[in-house]
Design brief:
single chain, 168 residues, globular
Length: 168
Amino acid sequence: MRERWKKELLKNACKVFTDGNWIESKDQSIKGIRLVQTGNIGFGYFRDKEDKARYISEETFDRLKCTEILPGDLLVSRLPDPVGKSCIIPELNTKMITGVDCTIIRPKDYLASDYLGYYQMSNQYLKDVQSRVSGTTRSRISRKNLGLIEIPIPPLPEQQQIVAILDK
């Protein structure tokens, strides 16, 4: 980490840092608002399993006061393989929500989503996540503990340079 980079708790570097919604099977429908689940989160990429997609109605969205996820948001799976894996939500041309086992991250303007996405694939991040995992039968990380992970934040131009290098 360079001298002029700052470190910040993940929860403080976000405009949105919240869990998805508790969606039961009785709340689901065959069309409507797309439910993005932990199975859609690859290690650094979105798995579009459109053929297995689940949905909820607008009425259910309003009744449950769901949080909409937007393209560019990051979703973090709080369950294993590995705990803390994330992906950036792509443009799917539909309204979307996520389930309770995912944390929605919408970074503040000084933190680029793609930089954070790459950082969340780093050994340091995964080590920090692993140190905060709990559960005897199934490992998981709470949103509270996820929010306590420190993120190194270089100036935005450096984040963009890092992303450009890693994209190659």
